[in-house]
Amino acid sequence: MDRPIDVLNNAKGKRILVRLKNNSQISGVLMALDLHLNMWLDDAQETKDGETTKLGTVLIRGDTIVMASPAEQ
Amino acid sequence: MDRPIDVLNNAKGKRILVRLKNNSQISGVLMALDLHLNMWLDDAQETKDGETTKLGTVLIRGDTIVMASPAEQ
Amino acid sequence: MDRPIDVLNNAKGKRILVRLKNNSQISGVLMALDLHLNMWLDDAQETKDGETTKLGTVLIRGDTIVMASPAEQ
Amino acid sequence: MDRPIDVLNNAKGKRILVRLKNNSQISGVLMALDLHLNMWLDDAQETKDGETTKLGTVLIRGDTIVMASPAEQ
Amino acid sequence: MDRPIDVLNNAKGKRILVRLKNNSQISGVLMALDLHLNMWLDDAQETKDGETTKLGTVLIRGDTIVMASPAEQ
Amino acid sequence: MDRPIDVLNNAKGKRILVRLKNNSQISGVLMALDLHLNMWLDDAQETKDGETTKLGTVLIRGDTIVMASPAEQ
Amino acid sequence: MDRPIDVLNNAKGKRILVRLKNNSQISGVLMALDLHLNMWLDDAQETKDGETTKLGTVLIRGDTIVMASPAEQ
């Protein structure tokens, strides 16, 4: 059986959805990932309180993440 | 006697219920688990404040978890 | 003299009471325990704000725990 | 010169007062102690917001503690 | 495939945008970076609640950071 | 050049002032100190919201401390 | 290229400005620094909510710091 992080390793190069502890939702293409769940996303945007902001290329710190999902299932 | 995490190791491939620190409740099929309680769930959904959201396949970060139970007891 | 955790090691197979950081109180039979105070409880129930919920078999993450006591003293 | 924890090591078998991060105050007889300040107390009681609750034998998780004092000085 | 932090390593000497856990936004030229995401920024300014403050040269502690992006994409 | 903690090592046996994360201020004679900033104080008292409480001999957990100063400068 | 902390190592013996997580601002002469960003400041003062308090010689715990800057740039 796989490790939990494999669900994201299998999504490299594809769009994922990330929920942060501050309740914002990030959508972006997963370019790189490490064991702390630090993530490099491309073409990212953030949705919070119904408002969407373009982030472009972004590094998200793993310890701010609640959960993450592949967008195309 | 077993380790605490064995209660979840024995539930692999089965549905579990997970309570998060932000008070949301996740239900999903446990696919993978590590010692930090990072979890890969399939067919997951989240219930918070009486509202249910489909999550599908999701990685949950272990440090956001309060408790977890096998759903079929 | 014993280690602090021995007060729970001596309670294996018996009912304990666990107070969580979110102020809920869990009662359950202690099945397994590790040094992080992760716990596997059977026949557990949670009381919060005067309301009681059945949890059954549950894994509680150690870092959410404030204190724990043997129920039968 | 001693280590800070020696102030409690010298209090083993005697009553101590423990202040928790949630502002409750615990009084109990110190039975065991480790370097994380996890503590096993006997004959413990908790005072919070002017109300006192009997705890009996209890394990307190060290990371919830602000300070601790020998009760008999 | 690269590590997440490479998205910032590639931005050394260039302007980046940093979001902090307290919701302020820092803009500055990235001079140095470590694995904890501690950052040395030059010519930095902070925007919070619509107000902008000049910071000049600043060290930002990594554990206060939510995300960071290259400003010129 | 010295280490930061030397400012307190030089104050052993003398009165120091300690500010806690919960905004209370402790004054006491520093008897012992470790690298986590755990401190053993004698003849301590706490001031919070204008009210002063006698603590006597107390162990303060280092992770609750914001800053500390020698009282006699 | 330097490490982030070098921006402060280069400021030893000079005045720096430190922002804490509780939003207070400390100004003081940097006497010593370690990798956790624990700092020994001399001739320090704190500004919070428009009010300034003399601190004199002070040890600041690194984990309470958001950012720090040389005052003379």
Q: Overview of this structure, please?
A:
The structure is a homoheptamer of 73-residue chains. Chain A has 73 residues and is mainly beta. Chain A has a single domain (6-70), classed as Roll (SH3 type barrels), CATH 2.30.30. Chain A has one helix at residues 6-9, and strands spanning 15-20, 25-33, 39-48, 51-60, 65-70. The first copy, chain A, is globular, with a radius of gyration of 11 Å. Chains in contact: A-B, A-E, B-C, C-D, D-F, E-G, F-G. The A-E interface holds A 12, 20, 22, 26, 31-34, 38-40, 55-61, 63-64 and E 1-8, 21, 23, 37, 62-63, 65-70, 73. Strand 5 (65-70) of chain C pairs antiparallel with strand 4 of chain D, so a sheet runs across the interface.
Question: Could you outline the blueprint of secondary structure elements for this entry?
Answer:
The structure is a homoheptamer of 73-residue chains.
Chain A: H1 6-9, E1 15-20, E2 25-33, E3 39-48, E4 51-60, E5 65-70
Antiparallel strand pairs in A: 1-2, 1-5, 2-3, 3-4
